[in-house]
Design a protein that fits this description.
single chain; 385 residues; alpha/beta; Archaeosine Trna-guanine Transglycosylase, Chain: A, domain 4; Transcription Regulator spoIIAA; Rossmann fold; 3 domains; 5-stranded mixed beta sheet; 10 helices; 19 strands; 30% strand
Length: 385
């Protein structure tokens, strides 16, 4: 096995529980991508890791054991990840099986949609052991079909091609899955992420239980929050700027026999201003925008955007109404997110009770020492005036 020497700073990082070693903390090496042995500058064994020479994140920690990282190792780690999900008692047929570093399987994403599994290999080191990884998925999960969605832009930083490949098919354009009492369509080849946003699964079910009156779902994408709320609310207005996404959302409504939804193609910022001018009010509002801060340099601008939509949503919230507000921007931590909510509430003149703090679904585990695994933060707020 190839050996990589890690600087004292990099070794401390690993020992404190973070699985990444950056290029600046690695001695020069001509090793090919794959699994390597990492040692400190004194020759002490640190662990085995995925080695990605082209990447700024050069080493991704796998194990502190010296036993071979082979097909059996990947099988056992995959089985552990699946067992944690307890699929027999999970009230959904679409869920995440592997959440990369959150499951100690760095740069690997595995999502299950019914009998189909969608996989992302996001590092050169992982790509080098593709065969072992796919074999482990096949034997542990036993899916009918496997799709590689290796079209995530992060692969460019690994000098890897962007591609979508059917490992076992054929895989249809749409796959039907269930989330609680709601059924919906997933587009595994073309949908966001691996087909849809599974990280909000539990929050969508949560909103199904608290939605009431006239509901508004902003940045609805394919309508999954709206579908859950429509089962309880009097009516739902669901807004997105993508006509294609709204077409799928309308199909999802038909699939569930729901006719109390209105699909609106619009820019959310513009529409909120319009609703405020018109004096419209809603009893339940969901704000689930895309990441406004994809880089640290965008944090201030993103916070202004988050505040604007939250402030305007608070102003059109009916008395005793409920807002669910979320941010998936990793660069905006939970503290700054809540500072933004407090500022928006203050400027709105509304008194809002913090009913619940939530995050990503449990199938997207967050490791305390790896902040990158916990990017989604959300709050349920209730107006008391």
């Amino acid at each position: 096995m190839e050996k990589i020497i890690v600087s004292p700073r990099g070794a401390r990082r690993w020992r404190r529980g973070h699985p990444w070693i950056y290029r600046s903390d690695v001695e020069r090496s001509d090793a090919a991508p794959g699994v390597v042995r990492a040692e400190d500058t004194h020759g002490n064994f640190l662990g085995q890791a995925l080695w990605s020479p082209p990447s700024e994140i050069s080493l991704r920690f796998l194990t502190s054991q010296e036993a071979p990282v082979d097909g059996d190792w990947w099988h056992d780690r995959m089985a552990e990840a699946l067992a944690v999900r307890d699929p027999e008692n999970l009230d959904a047929t679409g869920y995440r099986i592997v959440h990369a570093e959150g499951d100690s399987l760095p740069s690997l994403i595995v999502d299950k949609y019914g009998e189909i599994v969608v996989v992302q290999l996001l590092s050169a080191g992982l790509e080098a052991v593709r065969g072992q990884v796919l074999a482990a998925i096949d034997t542990v999960v036993n899916p009918k079909s496997i799709l590689l969605r290796n079209d995530a832009s992060v692969r460019r930083h690994e000098d890897l091609p962007l591609e979508v490949e059917e490992i076992r098919g054929p895989i249809p354009e749409f796959v039907e899955v269930r989330e609680g009492a709601v059924r919906y369509l997933v587009a595994p080849h073309t949908g966001q992420k691996t087909g849809c946003f599974l990280d909000q699964r539990e929050n969508r079910v949560l909103m199904a239980g608290v939605a009431h009156g006239r509901a508004l779902d902003l940045f609805t994408y394919q309508g999954l929050f709206a579908l859950q709320m429509a089962r309880r609310a009097e009516s739902v207005v669901a807004v997105d700027s993508s006509a294609a996404a709204l077409e799928v959302a309308a199909k999802n409504a038909e699939l569930n026999g729901l006719d109390n939804l209105e699909w609106v193609e619009a820019n959310v910022f513009d529409l909120l201003r319009e609703y405020e001018r018109e004096g419209r009010q809603f009893d339940t509002i969901v704000l689930d925008p895309p990441a406004f801060a994809r880089q640290r340099s965008a944090i201030d601008r993103a916070l202004r955007g988050y505040k604007e939509i939250n402030l305007r949503a608070m102003r059109i919230l009916a008395p005793k109404g409920t807002i669910f507000s979320a941010s998936c921007s990793f660069h905006i931590g939970r503290d700054r997110f809540f500072e933004m909510l407090i500022s928006a509430a203050s400027d709105s003149g509304r008194r809002l009770v913090l009913q619940e703090i939530t995050g990503q679904s449990r199938d997207h585990p967050r490791i305390l020492t790896v902040p990158e695994t916990g990017y989604l933060k959300a709050a349920v707020l209730r107006a008391v005036d």
